[in-house]
Amino acid sequence: MHLSPNVADWLLGHADSLRGMRRGLEKESLRIDAGGRLAQTPHPTGLGAALTHAQITTDYSEALLELITPALPSIAEALQHLDDLHAYVYRHLDDEQLWPHSMPCLLGEDAAIPLAQYGSSNSGRMKTLYRHGLGLRYGRKMQTIAGIHYNLSFPDAFWQLRAAQQNWSGDLSTLKSRDYFSLVRNFQRHSWLLLYLYGASPAVCASFLAGKQHPLMHSTSGHTLYLPYATSLRMSDIGYQNHVQAGLTVSYNDLPHYVRDLDRAIRTPHPDFMALGVLSADGERQQISGNILQIENEYYGLIRPKRTVQRGERPALALQRRGVEYVELRCVDLDPFSPRGIDTVAAHFLEVFALHMLLMESPCFQAPERAILSENQRRVVQEGRRPGLRLLDGQGEFDFHTRALALLEAMSVSAAALDRAYDEHGYSAALQAYRQRILEPERCLSARILTHLLPEQGSFFEFALQVAKDTRTHYLQQPLAAATASTLADLARRSLDDQRALEASDKIDLDAYLAAYFEPPLS
Fold first, then answer.
1. Which of 101, 211, 447, 476 places its Cα 20 to 30 Å from the Cα of 277?
2. Segment (H or E) for 281
3. Is the pLDDT of residue 194 over 90?
């Protein structure tokens, strides 16, 4: 849990090398109409083309907006850019709003959830086809769940010093990949802490589980379902989970095995998915394949090792060719008490956590550990604030609060190094703020949300809709610099031109495009 004395001393002595860190955010939000129902309108033209716009796009549904910041040199710049994107978007939504919670708004049947549309190019049709396949396999409602992905990378100056410290004589990209996978393993081992701290989905609208069996309790009104000690139902069995993938083993012990396992899953038929049919009754494709995974991104996880892809390049192939470039932290629920869905304290703490996970000892996963991680996740998301909660490790059970406080204490060295690098105190302050959430669970986002719903304060839907209205007012009143508005308008126009050019350039049909996309097999 603690950094070794040598590593701690080295980190504090070379803290300046962390100044070149880059972070970017990807924030998903459902578009809703004024009454709080899922928007049925197309992606607004004023926001550009979802296929080719690097900063404003869509995820699963045409109504699931995704805002993406570039990788930026400071937390303040990244959060400001996300604010600017919100301010721009709200000026193009007419009377629509953005739903402020991870768990969705009022939903009808699956057919009422529109798939994202990306035009007539092969790449655009593949994206929509993939989404149709997800809906066929798992249902569309699950795909409307939203969150924030926090992308983080460490600078070359840091890696060069790290190589010197370890007498590394190999390629720097190999060292990066090795250490990023160490981060990934430790992140998963200790993700129970993040699920507690960042969980903001202790309740759902009853419409989300209409007609399904579930373990949740009904509120007095009957329109809200919840668990009294839940933190993140988004990450529970009723949320963004996949029981088929529970039996899929993907190694996180190193990059070659990770790439190999994902590639095998993409090429291995699954009987249930094959039975659904690759083609519909009228002969149209309805999923990319009947294999365990259609593409790599179908494999869910709390964290992903990533590499920027080139057009038409598979993520696993990009990783194999150029190594890990950054990590994508995926366990952050939308914070309804922050207009942008995440505040500066949350961002600072994530970076401390990631740095500490990178530098801790990180043994390779053994088979029994996978079951332990899954059980810890289940306990925390369903009852993370329960007094006396106990979790599992290789030696048996441990007390959640005792271990959590010890981990935060161990992270103080990483926080001090980041404070020194950025000449501030935000990282150590974030550690102290989150320590209070462990000591006083009622400070957690999940507990604060329930105070608005129980016992008779109102329903999840009413609370969320009021927050949505307040957030819309906030961003419409927030000034947007003329230069920023002009730049974003130019990006939107350019993305529309780029999509038209891409559609005009296709020379092969979709089947040939898909065949070329999945070649060569990776070993």
1. 211
2. none
3. yes
Rounded distance, CA 331 to CA 351, Å? 13
Which residues fall within 8 angstroms of residue 349, CB to CB, at 6 or more apart? Answer: 197, 427, 430, 431, 433, 434
**Hey, is 92 helix, strand or coil?**
coil
C-alpha span between 350 and 328 (Å, rounded) = 11
As a whole number of Å, the CA-based R_g of the chain is 23
- pLDDT score at 90: 98
pLDDT band at 106; cut points 50, 70, 90: confident
Strands (E), 75-129: 97-98
- Let me know: does 6 contact 55? Beta carbons within 8 Å: no
Q: Is 369:394 a contact under the CB 8 Å cutoff?
A: yes
Topology of the domain covering 5-517 = Creatine Kinase; Chain A, domain 2 (3.30.590)
Domain ranges of the chain: 5-517
Kindly tell me if the per-residue pLDDT of 457 is higher than 70: no
CA distance 61 to 455: 34
Task: Please give the pLDDT value at position 183.
Answer: 98
Contact in structure between 460 and 223 (CB atoms under 8 Å): yes
Query: What string of DSSP letters covers 206-264?
Result: GGGGTT----PEE-TTSSEEE-TT-SBGGGSTTSS--TGGGG-----S-HHHHHHHHHH
Distance CA 278, CA 253 (A): 33
What are the E-state strand segments in 383-496?
A: 390-393, 396-399
Q: Dump pLDDT digits (tens) for 278-302.
A: 999 999 999 999 999 999 999 999 9
Please identify which residue in the block is written with the tokens 């006396």: 388
The DSSP bridge pattern shows strands 64-68 and 217-218 to be: unpaired
Q: Please say whether the beta carbons of 31 and 63 come within 8 A.
A: yes
218-229 tens-digit pLDDT: 886 768 999 999
**Tokens matching residue 380:** 């925390």
Give the CA-trace dihedral at 98, 101, 105, 111, to 10 degrees.
Answer: 90
Q: How far apart are the first and last CA of the chain?
A: 34
Q: Which pLDDT band, with edges at 50, 70 and 90, does 242 fall under?
A: low
Q: Hunting for tokens 């899954």 — which residue is that?
A: 374
Calculate mean pLDDT across residues 220-249.
84
Residue whose structure tokens are 């980190």: 11
Confidence of residue 245 (pLDDT cuts 50, 70, 90): confident
